[in-house]
């Protein structure tokens, strides 16, 4: 009887950790739940450390502000197999001191998001470029510390980049963006938004070199004009999405050919905008025969 009762008593920690728990159970838990589970007991703490040492994706976007920097360092101290790292909500505490060791020991990273991490410096981007040769996706939105030299270092070593977001990286000018376009021929998604330094020169260089471009964000690029949009239409047949809101020098004459190719554009045609304004004023949409 005692033997039968003993056989029926099986705890989750009795299951093989690396063969069962790590690949088939813990992978379905959020990072927040894993951190909570780690506090249950010493055994669970050890189990979660085994999981964290072998996880391929580490995303702090949901709990970043509440994670102490010491906890971040502890969680990833044994991991050397990361493929994806997201720090987009860690701006309050992450610095080069915490990030550089993680980057240095994870040379298989393919996706890194450092958006809005204002406490980092160009040294982190240089470290990414030297360590992560297989990098494909990079988020640097609102990282005003990104400069021309660090971007050049990145594209010199990571020519396989498929997407990069450099929204509001205001130190970057045409020369750096043109250099990137010539090095990263596989780019499919690019954001140059909110940068008054970007001109037609950058957009044309991107269009002529990145023929597989699918998404381009030029929101707020005040110096971009129709000329470069026409070049974009000519050289990028795979373009699916274009954002030109607040680009006051881009008009319908250059956007219409793209609309006819079903490219999604974030600015309505002039007639559509006029109808919306009229509806706001009158309180209803008047019938207009568009066939005339």
Structure write-up:
The protein is an alpha/beta fold and 292 residues long. It has helices at 2-8, 17-24, 31-38, 42-54, 69-76, 96-104, 122-131, 148-157, 174-183, 200-209, 226-235, 252-260, 270-282, and strands spanning 57-59, 84-86, 111-113, 137-139, 163-165, 189-191, 215-217, 241-243, 264-265. The N and C termini lie far apart (91 Å).
Task: Report the principal-axis shape.
Answer: elongated
The total count of helices amounts to: 13
Given the helix and strand composition, which structural class is it? alpha/beta
Radius of gyration, rounded? 25 Å
Low-confidence stretches: none
CATH class of the domain at 58-172: Alpha Beta
The CATH level-2 architecture of the domain at 58-172 is identified as Alpha-Beta Horseshoe
Spatially, the strands of the biggest sheet line up as 1-2-3-4-5-6-7-8-9
How is the main sheet built? 9 strands, parallel
Q: Separation of termini?
A: 91 Å
Oligomer: single chain
GO cellular component, one term: cytoplasm
GO biological process, one term: SCF-dependent proteasomal ubiquitin-dependent protein catabolic process
Pfam families: F-box
Keywords: Cytoplasm, Leucine-rich repeat, Repeat, Ubl conjugation pathway
């Amino acid at each position: 009887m005692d033997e039968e009762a003993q056989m029926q008593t099986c705890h989750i920690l009795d299951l093989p950790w690396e063969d069962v728990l790590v690949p088939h159970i813990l992978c379905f838990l959020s990072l927040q739940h894993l951190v909570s589970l780690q506090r249950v007991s010493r055994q669970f703490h050890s189990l979660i450390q085994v999981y964290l040492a072998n996880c391929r994706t580490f995303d702090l976007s949901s709990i970043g502000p509440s994670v102490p920097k010491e906890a971040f360092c502890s969680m990833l101290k044994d991991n050397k197999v990361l493929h994806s790292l997201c720090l987009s909500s860690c701006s309050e505490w992450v610095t080069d001191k915490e990030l550089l060791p993680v980057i240095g020991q994870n040379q298989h990273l393919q996706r890194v998001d450092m958006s809005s991490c204002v406490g980092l410096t160009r040294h982190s981007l240089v470290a990414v470029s030297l360590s992560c040769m297989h990098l494909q996706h990079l988020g640097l939105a609102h990282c005003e510390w990104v400069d021309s030299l660090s971007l050049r270092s990145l594209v010199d070593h990571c020519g396989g980049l498929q997407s990069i977001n450099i929204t509001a990286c205001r130190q970057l000018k045409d020369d750096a963006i043109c250099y990137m376009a010539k090095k990263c021929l596989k780019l499919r998604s690019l954001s140059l938004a909110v940068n008054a330094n970007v001109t037609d020169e950058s957009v044309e260089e991107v269009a002529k070199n990145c023929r597989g471009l699918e998404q381009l964000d030029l929101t707020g690029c005040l110096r971009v004009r129709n000329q470069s949009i026409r070049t974009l239409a000519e050289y990028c047949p795979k373009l699916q999405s274009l954002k030109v809101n607040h680009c006051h020098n881009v008009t319908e004459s250059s956007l219409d050919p793209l609309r006819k190719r079903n490219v999604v554009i974030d600015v309505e045609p002039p007639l559509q905008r006029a109808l919306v304004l009229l509806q706001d004023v009158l309180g209803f949409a008047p019938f207009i025969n568009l066939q005339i």
